[in-house]
Amino acid sequence: MAASGETQTVSEYIVHHLTNLTYGKLPGGFERYDGSIVPDGGVWTMAHGGAEASAMGFMAIHIDSMLWSIGLGIVFCLLFRSVAKKAEAGVPSGFVNFAEMVVEFVDNTVKDTFHGRNALVAPLALTIFVWVFLMNLMDLIPVDLIPHTLMLLGVEYQKIVPSTDPNITMGMALGIFILMLYYSIKVKGFGFVKELTLNPFNHPIFIPVNLFMEVVGFLAKPFSLGLRLFGNMYAGEMIFILIAALFSAGLFWMVPAGLMQMGWAIFHILVITLQAFIFMVLTIVYLSMAHEDH
């Protein structure tokens, strides 16, 4: 149900929940949702619907994804800063005990997987695991709660799960890719060029073939990393939205929809944790490969 009181169809309900709060520049001459024409030179504004967001092009910013991801990153920093201040010798308790378990778990995973020497990897792995987990955890909040509340306050669109936005997941994957490239050049030096050109066929005549295969494989790593997280979380959110749409199908569907919502939420706890773990482990593996100089 829209804030204006107009009834939404199921299709409109789904599209609305999958639309980001987008800010960008509409081109001159573009016809907006209310029939007005954007003057020459364009105008910077909030998009109203997918058509306007699409017209804004590459420079459009998903305000909701940016705010939620940065906000959850700040939550992570504050939580672990609080734990660090409370940590002391002796038996920990409460959240300090839980945080120490998480740190120990990530540290052991890094020791088992990373075969180089780099003081950055363990803190980076911990940050990725907790940050991605917190972003995924937003999927367990009832799908209508925050978007509908903000709509009543005048905010038309709101997606609260940053990991369902490919701009966020691919942005993180791009950061990992830059680290892979940096450490491959720093650790291997000219050996990185040899790895790209003389592997798997160790003969100069196969350099073009080797280079093509190695570059494709190298570039595929960040793409698979970002798209795997996005795809799994987006599918999970879609199921929540579809189940929520059943509540509008009549009283008969209220109880089944409630049970399905509860069942999927319980199962989804495993999914959000597993996806955070996979993103962290693949990051460690890729950085370990960047440090291996044969």
UniProtKB/TrEMBL annotation:
Provide the protein's localization: Cell membrane; Membrane
Per the record's keyword annotation, is Ion transport included, yes or no? yes
What's one GO-annotated cellular component? plasma membrane
According to its UniProt entry, one GO biological process term is: proton motive force-driven plasma membrane ATP synthesis
Q: Does the keyword Cytoplasm apply?
A: no
Primary localisation category: membrane
Top-rank taxon: Bacteria
Its function, per the record, reads: Key component of the proton channel; it plays a direct role in the translocation of protons across the membrane.
**Can you name this protein?**
ATP synthase subunit a
Bilayer topology term:
Multi-pass membrane protein
Recorded source organism is Halioglobus japonicus
Q: Where are the transmembrane segments?
A: 66-84, 120-146, 167-185, 205-227, 239-259, 265-287
Extent of the signal sequence: none
Family label:
Belongs to the ATPase A chain family.
